Amino acid sequence: MKAYNEEWIYNREIINQAQRWHREGLVNDSQLAVIKETYPVKFRDTSAFVEIGLFLFSIVAASGGYALLGLILSDVLQESFATGLFNILLGIGIGFFVEFLIRKQGMFRNGVDNALIAFMTALLVIGLNVWLPDETPVWSRCLVSLPVLFAVVWYYGDLIVMFGLISAVYTLVFDLLNDTASADLLIPLVMMALSAGLYWLALRLDLSLRSKKNVYWSDALNLAQWMTLSLLLINGNYFFVREVLSFLLKPDLNLRGAFSGASEIALSWLFWLFTFGIPLLYGFIGTTRKNRMFLILACLGTAGAIATARNYIGVLPWSVHLTVSGLILVLISIPLIRYLREPRYGFTDVPDEDSPKEFFLDAETVGAIQAAASTQPPKGLSYGGGDFGGGGAGKEY
């Protein structure tokens, strides 16, 4: 059992794909109407700007209500047990309210439910952690929080909670390794291995579920892939390992000098190799597999690698370096844009919709869309004239 209607979510994916085809002229208005009739979606439909506004308003309202209740019950909430119980009971109450909004109001990521799910999860996690002794290490707190975060992701497929789940896993591993010998070398290597493993797991789960027409967790798993690939890139960067990680492991350093006084790290050649090698690997995978995620991260990683090299071996001032880099990018971009005005080897500069790889429908589902598009329209719709049943097409079509 899950919070949202799985069939409606799957139908929504089909309709979204049909709308992409409609914008590209592959499906006409009447066929799109038939597809919408064949695959009904009864979720509340709101615009992105409205959802953002509702999310912010819900967070403010929930926080205000929480503060007001805490103020009223301040005399009771003096002990940790009472405070933890208050947070957990309030979180459960918000959970029932979210259930009402989903079942009765047809909400599906409309801002209000996103905010309340995140707020509910935070209350449950805080409540459990308040019950723990003060000397409890960070990794133990993360370990206690993981079942709650996982359960919420499983039930709602929420993106914000998935972000918290992945963050809790990395924080747990980081804190466990923080006090070990050679932590400055062990942490980035373990984090890279963890990132690769989690990415593989998220990708396998996503492909497996989509092959079974289950797209309930597709957005959350897609976010997990972005996060794990990004953290793999970051943990392999020489600047991050030498400067940022050194500051995290030695918080007593002054922030002003944190990124300038770190000493040379062990196996520096290996992290220099990672700094440039991982973006190149991402670029190779993105190019050969036409994967937009890898291409974007490859560009960002390359920029980070160049900035890292400039930080240690650069001879030009930053102003000159940025000017020259921008000029080089312009000189590369202009001919490349002109070259890709026509599709070349699967790449084009023409604005398009999401990559087809973002929508793993099997042949049966694609056939269902085509079948729905070729059926007679529902009563009340008219295709217009034409021998071919399409928008006025005549015999010369």
From TrEMBL:
Compositional bias per record (Gly residues), positions renumbered to this chain: 382-397
Annotated signal peptide: none
Keywords for this protein: Membrane, Transmembrane, Transmembrane helix
Keyword Transmembrane helix in record: yes
TM stretches of this protein: 52-74, 80-102, 114-132, 160-177, 183-202, 261-282, 294-313, 319-337
Keyword DNA-binding belongs to the record: no
Domain of life according to the entry: Bacteria
Positions of the UniProt region annotated as Disordered: 375-397
Protein name: DUF2157 domain-containing protein
